[in-house]
Amino acid sequence: LTSTAEHLFNLKFAAKELNRNSKKCDKEEKAEKAKIKKAIQKGNMEVARIHAENAIRQKNQAINFLRMSARVDAVAARVQTAVTMGKVTKSMAGVVKSMDATLKSMNLEKISALMDKFEHQFETLDVQTQQMEDTMSNTTTLTTPQNQVDMLLQEMADEAGLDLNMELPQGQTGSVGTSVASAEQDELSQRLARLRDQV
Fold it and tell me: Which 8-state DSSP code applies to residue 122?
């Protein structure tokens, strides 16, 4: 296989780039956390929530990049072994040829699909890689769980030594999420009671 060394280099380089992207997301997360504190200090909860959502998103992205970096690294090691043992098949050579543009794209879905193709070239697709793939597909969603956002807001307020006033009803205790949820539940119960009275 011609220029296999170059392709191997590109795989290893992509793993490093993915790792670098993960670190960038870490920095962004820290910056967003600082903005949360400032917004809470100014009493602007809406802005604080937006920065909290951004921080959680950056954190999840950092994890995704890190996972994919490890996965690409593992595939590079397998290709290296295949080359050393002279077991580079024609189909593997085909996958290698198509990979350069995909790796440069830094698109996690495309790289994940490419790694799938690579992994299918190996006789033993180990359980660990499959578990990693399952975890990847579960964490690439862009949704931001509100309980994580509320917890992060509380954490930043605590660090800043501030009371977190989320405009809760008087006498409500517990975490922000449960307070809001129970308030909604109470309202729902009252509506149902009124409907029953009308019947």
Answer: S
CA pair distance 167, 182, nearest whole angstrom: 14
Q: What pTM, to 2 d.p., does this model score? A: 0.58
The count of domains in the chain is 1
> Could you give the 3-state DSSP secondary structure of residue 141?
coil
Task: Give the range among 3-7, 15-19, 65-69 with minimum mean pLDDT.
Answer: 3-7
As separate numbers, helices (DSSP H) first and strands (DSSP E) second, the chain gives: 8, 0
What is the tens place of the pLDDT at every residue in 106-121?
Answer: 888 888 888 887 777 6
Alpha carbons 66 and 38: distance in angstroms, whole number:
29
Across the chain, the runs of DSSP E, i.e. the strands, are none
Quick: pLDDT tens for 78-88.
878 777 766 66
Residue 80 included in any domain:
yes
**16 domain-assigned:** yes
Q: Which two tokens stand for residue 188?
A: 């729902």
Contacts of 195 (CB under 8 A, 6+ apart): none
d(CA 72, CA 9): 12
Residue 48 lies in a domain: yes
Task: Give the Cα separation of 183 and 199 in Å (integer).
Answer: 25
Q: DSSP label at 140?
A: -
Question: DSSP letters along 167-193, please?
Answer: -PPTT--S-HHHHHHHHHHHHHHHHHH
